[in-house]
Amino acid sequence: MVEAIKIISQNKDWITIVFLAILIILTITKVVFNERLSRTNTFFLSRKYLAIYFNKEKRRLLNGFQILLFCVQLLVLSLLFFLTNVYFGFHSEILNFKGYLLILFLVSLYFGLVYVLGFLLAYLFSFKDEYSKIVFEKLNYFNNVILWLLPFLFISVYLKYYNKLFFEITVILFVLLLIVRYVLILSMNKKLIFNNLFYFILYICALEIAPLIIVLKLTF
Q1: Dihedral over Cα of 71, 76, 81, 85: its sign
Q2: Which of 34, 126, 160, 194 matches a 20 to 30 Å C-alpha distance to 153?
Q3: What's the CA gap between 29 and 24, in Å, rounded?
Q4: What is the pTM of this model?
């Protein structure tokens, strides 16, 4: 515990810069996409605006808003994994800024593989429209997860006492939000899933498991 706090203290300068980069991106997003960002925070509570924005954006899933929020996703998720490694000691070699950059690269690689393989399979098996809907929901619910997680992550870094306890609460919150995310996606697409069970199993194996195995093989 004491060693973990010492490691975090040694890394606070660049961690602060990461948080600053996240806040700058969010500020730009707030200025350019004010209403869109505000609605993103409510997607777990209401599906109304998720459907509205899908109808507006389905032809351009990788728009300016999603690109900005995707950068935030990468930075926040990589920092979460970095701090998890610090507190639970999985890899003693990645406890500094270079380690964070390695994690950032691996997280980016994972998401890159997921989206490239996903769209290739969607074109190959002619279910592009269905896949676009699921990707849109996944992206936006994950944006919601990250925005809710960010304040807890910030506090867990700069809290003077009980850092590990608060970080554990942050990790539990993250896992719970991910579960809620998957439940919502499954409930919204249950008819689509049951009607295309083969494609759903293919999706799980090829797009959720395979990229993760590739990244883990590169790591260990």
Answers
A1: positive
A2: 34
A3: 9
A4: 0.85
Tokens representing 81 are 């994994």
Give the Cα separation of 49 and 164 in Å (integer): 36
**39-77 b/e (C-beta count within 10 Å ≥ 16 → b):** bbeebbeeeebbeebeeebeeeeeeebbebbbbbbbbbb
The rounded distance, in Å, linking the Cα atoms of 208 and 106 is: 15
Asked if residue 127 lies in contact with residue 199, where contact means CB atoms within 8 angstroms, the answer is: yes
Q: Which amino acid is at 123?
A: Y
Q: Which of 167, 152, 146, 154 is nearest to 15 (CA)?
A: 154
Taking Cα atoms as reference points, which of 49, 212, 52, 37 lies closest to residue 117?
Answer: 212
Q: pLDDT tens digits for 106-162?
A: 999 888 888 887 778 777 777 777 777 778 888 888 999 999 999 999 998 888 777
**CA-based nearest residue to 103, from 89, 119, 83, 130:** 83
Distance between CA atoms of 15 and 100, rounded to whole angstroms?
9
